[in-house]
């Protein structure tokens, strides 16, 4: 389980690194990087399913800690997938906006056309749609930033909980050791007492026999 855990954790860190390159990738290549990230994310989820099975087979004293470690990995990769989906939605919105703008700019009007009036209402509607798209993108960016901040805060909280659980586990381990030492000392004291009583009886028997 340890080897698969470390391999999965390394893959998550690699996906996090690649996610930082999405905004800097040109439009012709960005979809290739998105497909690569999606494939890596799917592979990580497959590993997590295997890790959940292995964690359930751990000894009782290590099972809870193993499940906690797997849940932490699952939490991290789930938020990476959400971030990738949000990026794709923003990209789709930008591409739709660019297509609308190019369509508007490519329109030509001539005096020989049957309809020589520029459809002002349609143009205004298109402009309104573009403004709404801008607003939607700003909202998505704001929500994405808030989500990333929340992820960092929750990750810190989970790490703190993990550390506390390990401390408790260590304390329980120490308590078990102390109890075993106490039980061993009690057994030794009992044997010493019985031996002393036997020696005392033998001594008294010899004294009485000698005096008699």
From TrEMBL:
Entry-linked InterPro entries: GOSR2/Membrin/Bos1
Record keywords: Acetylation, Coiled coil, Endoplasmic reticulum, Golgi apparatus, Membrane, Protein transport, Receptor, Transmembrane, Transmembrane helix, Transport
Any matching Pfam family: V-SNARE_C
Molecular function in Gene Ontology: SNAP receptor activity; SNARE binding
Biological processes, Gene Ontology terms: intra-Golgi vesicle-mediated transport; protein transport; vesicle fusion
Membrane topology qualifier: Single-pass type IV membrane protein
Cellular component GO terms, alphabetical: endoplasmic reticulum membrane; ER to Golgi transport vesicle membrane; Golgi apparatus; late endosome membrane; SNARE complex
Domain of life: Eukaryota
Sequence intervals crossing the membrane: 191-211
CDD domains: SNARE_GS27
Subcellular location: Endoplasmic reticulum membrane; Golgi apparatus, cis-Golgi network membrane
Family statement: Belongs to the GOSR2 family.
Function: Involved in transport of proteins from the cis/medial-Golgi to the trans-Golgi network.
Protein name according to UniProt: Golgi SNAP receptor complex member 2
Designated gene of the protein: gosr2
